[in-house]
Automatic annotation (TrEMBL):
Its EC number is 5.1.3.6. This is UDP-glucuronate 4-epimerase. Coiled coil: none annotated. It is an enzyme of class 5 (isomerase).
């Protein structure tokens, strides 16, 4: 053995000799090295080609490719123009991001109903059942709203949209929502809520004319705040989740683009929105599904049996707040990336002002569904949820004329009616 090694090393040394080529292919160590490289190469090819499953950031990128869909061409532009065409006197032309989402669908439909031009944009990601997003898309399609399939990080697409339509307003609702999913896929929050928002603002600031922007922040920015009801003047520097941190970052980013480029920006802090066509990851939605299936539901309680409560806000009230924000938004003051004067910068709470304990929510659902829920009481985990939310809406009332009018009982009745007709017997089941 030793002899072999020595002889191999000896042959290796001879590589510089004139016999190099002949020796290379006949030496066992050279053959071994050659095949090792081939083997290593195959392993590398395998790893680089397969999508990452271990890294949340990697899975995010593979799931949300920016260029999966084709856009452009005369027929596509015609469709975009037609959807965004204003059909009423004094109407506005709005780009709605996240239009296939829960709030986006309702806002788009309401704008279209009153004769505004509406173009949707959504990447139809699979954070929750995409067939629900497709059903919302079909609903909007019937009322004349076209949703372009694309990502807000796709700058070329955004620029094209602004080239085809001179949008007067942007209603920015696209985001990675949900609090707990941040522990599974943190990268998706950075991708949509931070990078995506900046990408959109970059295109808006360079547009000529610049649009006015209304966008969804969240009540979650109040984080560990204990002073109630939450007012816009309260501190928002203690986020309890990555989701909340990205929304807070969005508010700071909005300030910057307003300050430097004169963009008119209005941030809306929504409080637990619910209603028909809602989001399957929210408690009222999956409680309904599980109660109907006879599955046990987990109800959280805070320390010392403290009540967990939410300021549930019905979707129609949120839509009214969004439309009023668009209607009262002043024009941006810049053009072509240059600020010409100070521009409007606003933040509003949009809530219902009456927090309801989650146990009451379950009682109402039991009555509406006529099924007794199997409940298990659990300690509120410290993974993003806060104990209660409660909105002070005096600012929105004063400046937007915002006045929520649907109580939880009435709103849930409408939700349950929709749920049963959408997922009812013989139809699809909620995933
Ligand atoms: N529903 C609530 O209770 C609530 C509360 C506070 C704040 N908000 C905010 O309101 C907005 C709307 O929420 P929702 O409940 O309708 O959520 P949703 O998830 O139903 O809608 C968001 C939509 O945005 C799309 N989207 C996500 N990332 C995108 C990207 N990078 N490019 C293009 N499209 C993308 C999604 O596919 C989805 O259809 C979000 O900004 C959310 O954070 C909602």
């Amino acid at each position: 053995m030793k002899e072999n090694v020595q002889s191999t090393l000896g042959k290796f040394k001879m590589e510089k000799s004139p016999y190099m080529h002949r020796l290379r292919w006949h030496s066992p160590i050279v053959k071994l090295t050659f095949w090792s490289f081939v083997f290593l190469g195959l392993i590398l090819v395998f790893f680089f080609r397969s999508p990452s499953t271990s890294s949340p950031l990697g899975s995010d990128v593979s799931r949300r490719s920016l260029s999966t869909n084709s856009w452009g061409g005369p027929a596509w532009e015609k469709r975009v123009r037609s959807s965004a065409k204003v059909r009423s006197r004094n109407g506005i032309s709005v780009l709605v991001t996240g239009a296939a989402g829960f709030v986006g669908t309702h806002v788009s439909a309401a704008l279209k109903r009153r004769g505004d031009g509406v173009l949707g944009l959504d990447n139809f990601n699979d954070y929750y059942d995409p067939t629900l997003k497709r059903a919302r898309q079909a609903l909007l399609e019937r009322s004349g709203v076209y949703i372009v399939e694309g990502d807000i990080n796709d700058k070329a697409l955004l620029e094209k949209l602004f080239e085809v339509v001179a949008f007067t307003h942007v209603m920015h609702l696209a985001a990675q929502a949900g609090v707990r999913y941040a522990m599974v896929n943190p990268g998706s929050y950075i991708h949509s809520n931070i990078a995506g928002f900046v990408s959109l603002l970059e295109v808006c600031k360079s547009a000529n004319p610049q649009p006015a922007i209304v966008w969804a922040s969240s009540s979650s920015v109040y984080g560990l705040n204990t002073k109630v009801p939450f007012s816009e003047k309260d501190r928002t520097d203690q986020p309890a989740s990555l989701y909340a941190a990205t929304k807070k970052a969005g508010e700071e980013i909005a300030h910057t683009y307003n300050h430097i480029y004169g963009l008119s920006l209005t941030g809306l802090r929504f409080f637990t929105v619910y209603g028909p066509w809602g989001r399957p990851d929210m408690a009222y939605f999956f409680f309904t599904k599980d109660i109907l299936k006879g599955k046990s539901i987990q109800i959280f309680e805070a320390a010392n049996h403290g009540t967990v409560a939410r300021d549930f806000t019905y979707i129609d009230d949120i839509v009214k707040g969004c439309l009023a924000s668009l209607d009262t938004a002043e024009k941006s003051t810049g053009s072509g990336g240059k600020k010409k004067g100070p521009a409007q910068l606003r933040v509003f709470n949009l809530g219902n002002t009456s927090p309801v304990p989650v146990t009451n929510l379950v009682n109402i659902l039991e009555r509406l569904l006529k099924v007794k829920a199997k409940k298990s009481i659990m300690k509120l985990p410290r993974n993003g949820d806060v104990q209660f939310t409660h909105a002070n809406i005096s600012s929105a009332r004063r400046e937007l004329g915002y006045k929520p009018s649907t109580d939880l009982q009435t709103g849930l009745k409408k939700f349950v009616k929709w749920y049963l007709s959408y997922y009812g017997e013989g139809k699809k089941s909620a995933k």
